[in-house]
Amino acid sequence: MIKLTLAELASITGGKLYGNANAIVTSVAPIDKATKGCITFLSNLKYKKYLVNCNATAIIFDKKIGYEQFQGSVLLVDDSYVAFAKVAQVFDITPKPSENISTFAVVHENVLFGKSVSIGAHSIIESGVKLGDNTIIGPGCFIGRNVILGKNTTVWANVTIYHEVIIGNQCLIQSGAVIGSDGFGYANEKGEWIKIPQVGTVRIGNRVEIGACTTIDRGALEDTIIEDNVILDNQLQIAHNVQIGYGTAIAGGTIIAGSTRIGKYCTIGGGSVINGHIEITNGVTITGMSMVVRGISKKGVYSSGIPLQLNKDWRKTATRVHRIDEMNKRLKALERLFKESKTES
């Protein structure tokens, strides 16, 4: 069990402590379930109702939120959600995917090892691979020829990384991800599909996290590029030659078609579909279930799709959408009549 004093947690978060500096914390918990020995946080006012009965040893508060209703110790910070994330990392007890190099792993003799590398059972590491210091590869992975994995990068079980892929330092790749598979490139000759070899690769920067069962295709001629500090959720499809800028976050189920460029610090909601060969500028937010068919050149929040309605209301909406051309023609006709009547008068 991990045990830390509130004084130590104040040092980790950079917060100002009001209360018992020697009090011991052993875990993190949500505010409505926290008990003695737990630390929790409050950043959203709708949860303030739980303060009166909260039994946590300490609560992390935003400076902008009053904490008078809580009788325990308080850590006051600029951003309680960020501070809580740092505390949660300290108490994280997630096991490593593997320890040491399993005797059941298949490792080519021409693999370059950094210090303290771990490889799980039944993983295959092919010729020319370079593994940085403290790289961890879980069981059942395939690491293709000439792949480079940077320092302190963790690859969970059953991940496939195709040949020539380059992945930076401190990356986290969740189970089932596929990186460097062929992009969807074909020509059609009289009804017959002719495959276009995908001769680019995938280049992933530092501190990138890739969710479970996400697929990132290799480039056709150039590379698919994921820049530093990008976070990708589960079950994304990122097609060939896509480029994703620094600090962008993309939620689950999103599909990005080929050769699209997404800028820095963008946020893309789950289930979105983004057309190919377009460019999205820096700082764009796209809400969930959106369909992006054209480039976005101005920073802002963008949405599409119809919010949930009762089925009978949705049917009316859908019927009106199908009649929009007819309605437009009638409107223009009325505008002409109105102009003519004004001219006559």
UniProtKB/TrEMBL annotation:
Q: Which GO terms describe its molecular function?
A: N-acyltransferase activity; UDP-3-O-[(3R)-3-hydroxyacyl]-glucosamine N-acyltransferase activity
Pfam families this protein is in? Hexapep, LpxD
Domain of life of the source: Bacteria
The entry's keywords: Acyltransferase, Lipid A biosynthesis, Lipid biosynthesis, Lipid metabolism, Repeat, Transferase
What's the catalysed reaction?
Answer: a UDP-3-O-[(3R)-3-hydroxyacyl]-alpha-D-glucosamine + a (3R)-hydroxyacyl-[ACP] = a UDP-2-N,3-O-bis[(3R)-3-hydroxyacyl]-alpha-D-glucosamine + holo-[ACP] + H(+)
**Pathway assigned to this chain's UniProt record:** Bacterial outer membrane biogenesis; LPS lipid A biosynthesis
- HAMAP family xref list: LpxD
PANTHER family assigned to the protein according to its UniProt record, in alphabetical order: UDP-3-O-ACYLGLUCOSAMINE N-ACYLTRANSFERASE, UDP-3-O-ACYLGLUCOSAMINE N-ACYLTRANSFERASE 1, MITOCHONDRIAL-RELATED
- What family does the database annotate? Belongs to the transferase hexapeptide repeat family. LpxD subfamily.
Q: Function of this protein?
A: Catalyzes the N-acylation of UDP-3-O-acylglucosamine using 3-hydroxyacyl-ACP as the acyl donor. Is involved in the biosynthesis of lipid A, a phosphorylated glycolipid that anchors the lipopolysaccharide to the outer membrane of the cell.
Q: Could you tell me what this protein is called?
A: UDP-3-O-acylglucosamine N-acyltransferase
